[in-house]
């Protein structure tokens, strides 16, 4: 497998995109890139392009959303780091054979037209880690 080519985005769990935008949009002056709903994960995602990276704000849309559970346990904050890869199935296979614990063994649909999969923080020095590959 090819190593990831860059960090694609940081995911930050928030109670409210509007409230968090007061920092990222109003105070920092970042230009909002849009808001998208990802029903598979029960989240609304706002992203702010920043150079080659994006800041992704994740707001739960249901009480049983993984983001709602994260907020309940840990409060708002850094949720995950996402690496861009060019062949997600190959990356997952390589990680699995290296003994990395995967949350998703097969790619699923994420925001921004990406196929995504998560590796478990227990295998990644405590940081929930996403791997993503553009589908378009
Ligand atoms: Zn993400």
Report the portion of residues in β strands: 35-45%
| Parts with pLDDT < 50 across at least 5 consecutive residues | none
Bound molecules: zinc ion
The oligomerization state is single chain
CATH class, please? Answer: Alpha Beta
- What spatial order of strands do you see in the largest sheet? 2-3-4-1-5-8-7-6
Indicate how many domains the architecture comprises.
Answer: 1
Determine the N-to-C terminus distance. Answer: 20 Å
Rounded mean pLDDT is 95
Q: What is the string of SSEs from the N terminus onward?
A: EHEEEHEHEEE
Number of distinct helices: 3
Count the beta strands: 8
- The shape, in one word, is globular
- What structural class is derived from the secondary structure elements? alpha+beta
Give the CATH topology. Answer: 2,3-Dihydroxybiphenyl 1,2-Dioxygenase, domain 1
How would you characterize this protein structure?
This protein is of the alpha+beta class and 136 residues long. It has a single domain (6-134), classed as 2,3-Dihydroxybiphenyl 1,2-Dioxygenase, domain 1 (Roll). The protein is built from three helices and eight strands; from the N terminus they run E-H-E-E-E-H-E-H-E-E-E. The chain has helices at 17-27, 66-74, 88-97, and strands at residues 6-13, 35-38, 43-50, 53-60, 77-84, 108-109, 114-119, 129-134. It has an eight-stranded mixed sheet with strand order 2-3-4-1-5-8-7-6. A hairpin with a 4-residue loop joins strand 6 and strand 7 (114-119). The longest helix is centred in the first third of the chain and has 11 residues, at 17-27. The radius of gyration is 15 Å and the shape is globular. The two termini are 20 Å apart. The mean pLDDT is 95. The structure holds zinc ion. Zinc ion is lined by residues 9, 11, 56, 80, 82, 130.
């Amino acid at each position: 497998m090819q190593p990831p080519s860059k960090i694609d985005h940081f995911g930050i769990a928030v109670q409210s995109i509007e409230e968090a935008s007061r920092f990222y949009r109003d105070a920092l002056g970042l230009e909002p890139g849009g808001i998208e709903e990802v029903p598979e994960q029960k989240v609304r995602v706002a992203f702010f392009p920043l150079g080659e990276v994006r800041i992704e704000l994740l707001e739960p849309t249901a009480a049983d959303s993984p983001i709602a559970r994260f907020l309940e346990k840990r409060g708002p904050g850094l949720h995950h780091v996402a690496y861009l890869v060019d062949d997600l199935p190959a990356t997952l296979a390589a990680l699995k054979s290296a003994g990395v614990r995967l949350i998703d063994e097969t790619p699923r649909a994420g925001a921004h037209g990406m196929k995504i999969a998560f590796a478990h923080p227990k295998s990644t020095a405590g940081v929930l880690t996403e791997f993503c590959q553009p589908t378009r």
